[in-house]
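tokens incoming
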């Protein structure tokens, strides 16, 4: 895919690998749209959104976009991330 996917938000420099992985989901895995937010000890350390709301790519995915319930398989990834943060990885 040669299209540049719009990504916005913030990511603490210590967690730059999260942003890199988020962006690679679009470039390498064909992700259409997504958002990831991580809060640690009350501080937002990652809050990224990007891509589009549908395969038509006619609306950007932004901070107000609500995912379809079908996106719930991502729960496993979220659970793994939470575990990594919990053990300090």
């Amino acid at each position: 895919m040669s299209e540049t996917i719009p990504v916005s938000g913030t990511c603490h420099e210590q967690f730059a690998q999260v942003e890199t992985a988020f962006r690679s989901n679009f470039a390498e895995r064909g992700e259409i749209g997504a958002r990831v937010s991580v809060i640690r000890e009350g501080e937002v350390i990652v809050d990224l959104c990007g891509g589009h709301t549908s395969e038509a790519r006619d609306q950007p995915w932004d901070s107000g976009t609500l995912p379809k319930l079908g996106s719930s398989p991502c729960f496993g990834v979220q659970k793994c991330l939470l575990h990594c943060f919990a053990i300090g990885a």
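note: Residues 7-86 form one domain.
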